[in-house]
Amino acid sequence: MTEVDDVRATREGYDAVAELYTDVFKRSLAENPFDRAMLDIFADLVGDSGAVVDIGCGPGRITGYLHAAGLRVSGIDLSPEMIRLARRDLPQIGFEVGSMERLELADASLAGIVAWYSIIHTPPERVPAVFAEFARVLRPGGQLLLAFQSPTEPVSVQRFDHKVTTGYRWSADAVAEVLDANGFRTTARLSREARTGENSENSPQGAVLAERL
User: Fold this and answer.
1) Distance CA 151, CA 23 (A)
2) Exposure pattern of 112-141 as b/e (b: 16+ CB <10 Å)?
3) DSSP letter at 150?
4) Residues 162-185 pLDDT 10s
5) With contact defined as beta carbons under 8 Å apart, do 137 and 110 qualify?
6) How far is the C-alpha of 21 from the C-alpha of 141, rounded, in Å?
7) Is 104 exposed, middle or buried (0-12, 13-18, 19+ CB in 10 A)?
8) Angstrom distance (rounded) from CA 202 to CA 107
9) Do β-strands 138-149 and 205-212 pair in parallel, antiparallel, or remain unpaired?
């Protein structure tokens, strides 16, 4: 399958900023109790029930947090440079280059997926297929946790100029609606205001937890 332009732009963009990204976000999780709370709930629900994959893992900050929580977790990212840094900093965890639109994983092989700000560069018309792919590799009862930027206006999806490449903000309700149409049952939604200095647009942030049907 031919690589589409937006996928190439995302990969090349994150390759170019991987070192800077790793440095800028290295303390963001420690400073954000809301994000930790959602990750802790996810970890508690999954427990020791099976394998978890952090899809769009970047340099592995979320992967490392879940590993420390006791999950059997690995990471996948589109950017080879991000994966290089993740392997360097977290050699005890497995990381691979890959695409969330074509996961090289067996059907019903996972107990959980985290996609932390991983859908934000995917054009909205392709997001349902991404969620269907997540549903394919999750077993029934498996947990999915998503995080994303939310719109600054009362709309479901909002295009914006992300510093790396084109991005899309989603309302939590819109994400839940697409999940519920593609093999999931939404169980929790979080909407919060941006923290000071979190992003230049001061946009809200969202997270959704869902269970594979």
Assistant:
1) 26
2) bbbbbbbbbbbeeeebeebbebbbbbbeee
3) -
4) 999 999 999 999 999 999 999 999
5) yes
6) 34
7) exposed
8) 39
9) antiparallel
- CB neighbour burial string for 70-85, b if at least 16 within 10 angstroms, e if fewer: ebbbbbbbbbebbbeb
Pairwise CA distance, residues 94 & 148, whole Å: 24
Q: Which two tokens stand for residue 157?
A: 């999806």
pLDDT-derived band at 205, boundaries 50, 70, 90:
very high
Distances (CA, A) of 68 to 83, 117, 126, 162: 19, 20, 33, 31
Please report the pLDDT score of residue 204 as a whole number. 94
**Which pairing describes strands 138-149 and 184-192: parallel, antiparallel, or unpaired?**
unpaired
CA distance 71 to 162: 31
- Residue 97's contacts (CB-CB under 8 Å, 6 or more residues apart) are 76, 77, 78, 79, 80, 83
Residues present in the chain in total: 213
The predicted-structure confidence for 61-98, as pLDDT tens digits, reads as follows 999 999 999 999 999 999 999 999 999 999 999 999 99
DSSP class of residue 3 equals P
